Amino acid sequence: MQTNSRRLRAILVSLLFFLMSLNLGSGLAEIDDSEATPPDLFLYNMVIGDTWVMDTELDVASLIDPTDPTWYGTVIGQPLSGQTTRTVLDIKTIEYKSQNHTVYEIQQEGSYVGIGTFPAPVIGLITGTMLVDYTAKFWYRVSDHAKLREVTNVKIDLEHLAGVELLLDTEITREFDSDAEYFDYPTLWNETWTQTYIQNESWDGNAGYFSPPSNEKLKERAYSYNNYSTPSIEWPGCESSSYIEQTNSEGEATEYKWFCPSIRGSVVEWTEDIILGVPAYSELNSFTPGESQTSEIEIVFDNSFDANNVTLNSMILFNLTIDLENETSLENEIIRINYLGEYTNWTLNQSNSVSVNLSSNISKDSTTTLYDWASHGIVIELESHSIFTAFTITLNSSSIAEGIALRSESLELMTNWVDDGFNSITIFGEQTRW
């Protein structure tokens, strides 16, 4: 109950923040008062080779604790600046929490420089140029773009008149339990949603001046999408973008993005922790699209099927057809479908088609929202031709609510029979299943 109260408080505080007219530096955007109907955000497919270059500033000074003798006399007057390049390297299969998922493998690289003064043995304070080399790989689930893992290498040197001093050289691994799902596709206008997950973090290398954080951190996050406005930079097709903000359980902004569909990503973004707890602000400098597939997967649902209102354990029925540019026959080729961490295989007929039926199942995703209790992505792949697509279905909120009510009733009855009243069960937690 205490956890649920914190989540509700986070949502209310987040909404209050959005109603305030604040500047960009605070991590918040102004509300757009136009009468235009903002778009809902639907799951989209990235393309291998998609590359975004962002102009980035790192607020390293926020790390410095003047009461810590390790940092005595340290001064970093201005943010470190440089560029961050993000590239979709591959689409592959990985195992995560004993399930198999199709993921985007994304690489992020950056080099940043700035002036800093640090304490040094014998000679006292040294002023020089901080040089940061940063490389990271991320694995995002194709079905909902949730982050599963990341591995980062970061090296920080201080170059000064007497030579070069190493401040940090380490590899940092983060794994999320459960997934870290920033968007709740389909993300609806005026929607808020919450999530709780564990971030496991491990260091390997020379920590230098830095102290590794604890390995496990409980993260509670609330999200809001009620701002469709003009970002702080001009970019063709991004004159109006969808502003999504993430806050912690205290209602403090921890990340935001101006999402722009025409670049399949963010035109502006800020995070309180790109790595080491360093806040990073980035603006798009260039976008180079990857080579899009020339063949497509066409999906046709039954007229009675509503992908945004699927009842519990109902069948998901659709016909799919592969449209090949060169009209090659795909008879007996295998289509692979990834849903809820499992793969199933389907065989194409002479028309390059197949009828698919999947059970919606009853599992709940890791976000909680007033609009859809459980959105799930389905990934369809023709591996032999590197063709894929993904779409979401949403479980009926009334059915979910009934399930919660029934479970709550059952728990109340069982309280009389069992010691401690089932206090260890979290009705709305990310591990709930009904």
Number of helices: 2
Beta content: over 45%
The average pLDDT is 80
Question: What is the percent of helical residues?
Answer: under 10%
Structural class: mainly beta
Any idea what the shape is? elongated
Q: H/E order of the elements?
A: HEEEEEEEEEEEEEEEEEEEEH
How many domains, in number, for the residues? 2
Low-confidence spans: pLDDT under 50, at least 5 residues?
A: 1-34, 409-434
- From the alpha carbons, calculate the radius of gyration and give it in angstroms: 24 Å
In short, what is this structure?
The chain has 434 residues and is mostly beta strands.
Overview of this protein structure:
By secondary structure, the chain is mostly beta strands. 8% of the residues lie in helices and 50% in strands. It folds into 2 domains: 2-288, no CATH class; 296-397, Immunoglobulin-like (Sandwich), CATH 2.60.40.10. The protein is built from 2 helices and 20 strands. The strands form 3 sheets. Strands 1-2-3-4-5-6-7-8-9-10-11-12 form a 12-stranded antiparallel β-barrel. A hairpin with a 5-residue loop joins strand 9 and strand 10 (253-260). The protein is elongated.
Features:
434 residues; mainly beta; Immunoglobulin-like; 2 domains; 50% strand; elongated; disordered N terminus; disordered C terminus
